[in-house]
Hints:
alpha/beta; Glycerol-3-phosphate (1)-acyltransferase; seven-stranded mixed beta sheet; 39% helix
Amino acid sequence: MSYSFYVFIGLMHRLGVMTYEIVGLEKLNRPGQLIIANHPTLVDIVFLISRIKQASCIVKAKLWHNPFMRGPILNAGYISNGDPEQMIAECVAWLRSGGSMIIFPEGTRSIPGKPYHFQRGAAAIALQANAIVTPVTLTCTPSTLTKTERWYQIPERRFHLTMHVGDDIPLDEFAGISPKSVGVRRFTQYQQDYFTQQRELYKHDGK
């Protein structure tokens, strides 16, 4: 799957549909690593998987009933969000076994101009698995394939996608909080604040 997406991104680049920039790629592709990312555009997951080998991710339960999608999803070993408790358990087991995961804490694409609203799943998984947590900030200019745009609404000029890989987030501060639910809530808020700051930073930088 990673190679297929790598070829797809390369084709889009060669055709002049998009350009891209990656900063900090060397921080990825480590065993037991949880990559958390913001989700501005439909291309995000394709771009991330194209650069992260053998990464698992969470897939909407309804896609498991799609005859065209079910096979590739099963072969890739992706995890359904149909049962939240089972989903968390499977993600934790995968990370503990040395696998890597990509999770969008928002659970869906961002709404342009609206504040982030993160779900608690990513924080719960990270703390239970005691994973390496690495934030990735994605920016797309001009706005493309957002939650408020149709897949066929392509901008007149090619879009530029940038991936900034941040430093690992230490979990000690959150793992030691009791009860655990409070630690999960605080870590979720930390993620939300982090990506809000990153969005403002790169907006001012014009990236």
